[in-house]
Amino acid sequence: MQTIERNKLFVASCLALLVTSLSFGIRAGIMNQLVIDFHLSTAELGVITASAFWGFPLAIIIGGFVVDVIGMKKLLVVAFILHLSGIVLTVFAAGYWTLFISTLLIGIANGTVEAACNPLVASLYTDNKTVKLNHFHLWFPGGIVIGTLIVLLLNTLQIGWQWQVAIMIIPTLIYGYLFSSLKFPVTERVASGYSTTDMYKAVLSPLFIVMLICMFGTAVTELFTGQWIDVLLKNLTNNAILILTLTTGVMVVGRGLAGPIVHRLSPQGVLLLSAMVSAIGLYLLSTLTGNAIFFAAIVFGIGVCYFWPTMIGFVAEHIPQSGALGLNLMGGAGMFAVSIYSIFMGNFYDGLVLNYLPAGADLAAYLGAAEGTSMNQVLNQAKSLAGPEVIRITLTIPIVLTIIFAGLVLYLRSRKKVKTPPALQADL
Q: Exposed (0-12), middle (13-18) or buried (19+): which is 96, by Cβ within 10 Å?
């Protein structure tokens, strides 16, 4: 009888997440080239980018409802097929609509991976969920680092963006093979005996709803800023994509060291500290220039490092009755928020750029101006003012999160004291 090989399943899960993150890192690195090759406005680019974030919540929420029934393995077969289809279609994209559809397919694949792998990791490591989810999710920033470095290297070698995207086929084929040959456990909720009624009650509880709302903010703070960093700060530094590489590199190290930090501070304490440092990081990104901006990237990376996996880990530990549905609703809420915010900010950014152009200027004419012309220089100056302004507006999100997470820490501390007998409280 085939046994469950925990380590191999975890490695395969990390590879699947690596494909997800490579899609973010490589897309972030080629966004400006897509604008040039397909004559896209920033608003159109925002819609294409947002399509990945639409597909993700669609897949992860549907996956949350069906994963207990059909099993995690079947979901990951679907993810493999969608990843392969989306990557190939991107390579052969001919314009706006093929880019939109291919990005949507990859987004659905990404969401399906998380819909299966988050509950898989929680089921494999029931005694250490938040830490192992951090270890699993370090491959998200890890893949972004790898993806951005691939872009930088292949751009230096003057190898086109189509080949950069095609590289993702390799890990896709490997994770597809591994998952097809391994036996999967049932989800933790099923193994623990929680009923479907218990699950629905849990996702309607006040604590879960508060965390769901907070997920909107943590996801936007981390993912919107990372995905748009090359566009927002390109005119402030010649190496804007390196800001993303540096930020995500910090996140890889931080998530790898999550064990002692989570055990020392508790998940809610980690979230509070993350929100505070993220706010400082965004402020620095919006104000510093030159090489100092790389210091801002380090601070920001430390801030957002633990957001996503610790939000999911908090729910897994404090609201285990919510099961795979609870974990997937959290991920879906985060990606949905990023999709809406990307569309809004894409249009808002274009509006800011237009405001910084001469009165009566035609934005399309400036976008089409040749490199080095006076119109192009005026456009670049307008972009250098608009980008940091978008970041300053985004800064309000982690400030609000800081207040909410401080309240969460106090609430859970008071609840713990109520449940602790007076004699033990004296010892504490």
A: middle
pLDDT 10s digits, 203-213: 999 999 999 99
* CB neighbour class for 156 (10 Å; exposed up to 12, middle 13-18, buried from 19): exposed
Taking the model in full, what pTM does it have?
A: 0.76
For the record, the structure tokens of 131 come out as: 């830490």
Cβ-based neighbour number of residue 158 at 10 Å: 6
DSSP assignment of 112-172:
HHHHHHHHHHHHH-TTSHHHHHHHHHTHHHHHHHHHHHHHHHHHHTT--HHHHHHTTHHHH
CA–CA dist 303, 277 (Å, integer): 5
**Phi (first) and psi of residue 227, to 5 degrees:** -70, -30
Q: Is 93 helix (H, G, I), strand (E, B) or coil?
A: coil
Q: What is the pLDDT of residue 235?
A: 56
Q: With contact defined as beta carbons under 8 Å apart, do 130 and 259 qualify?
A: no
What residue type is 24 in one-letter code? F
Beta carbons of 99 and 51 less than 8 angstroms apart: no
Q: How many CB atoms lie under 10 A from the CB of residue 280? A: 16
CB 10 within 8 A of CB 185: no
Residue 315 confidence (pLDDT): 93
Rounded to whole angstroms, the Cα distance separating 26 from 147 reads 5
Dist. CA 48–CA 55, nearest whole Å: 11
pLDDT computed for residue 427 by the predictor: 40
3-state secondary structure of 390: helix
What is the model's pLDDT at position 241? Answer: 65
Q: Are 328 and 62 in contact (CB under 8 A)?
A: no
CA distances from 386 to 85, 286, 299, 367 (A): 36, 10, 22, 15
> What's the rounded Cα separation, in Å, for the pair 394 and 344?
12
Q: Residue 424: its pLDDT value, please?
A: 39
Nearest-angstrom CA–CA distance, 163 and 318: 44
**Alpha carbon distance 428, 413 (integer Å):** 12
CA dist., res. 405 & res. 214, Å (int): 9
Q: In degrees to the nearest 10, what's the CA dihedral of 413, 414, 416, 418?
A: 170
SS3 label, residue 97 = helix
Regions of the chain short of the pLDDT cut 70: 1-2, 227-241, 367, 417-428
Instruction: Give the gyration radius of the chain's Cα atoms.
Output: 22
Which tokens in the block code for residue 48?
A: 């294409």
70, two tokens: 């059909």
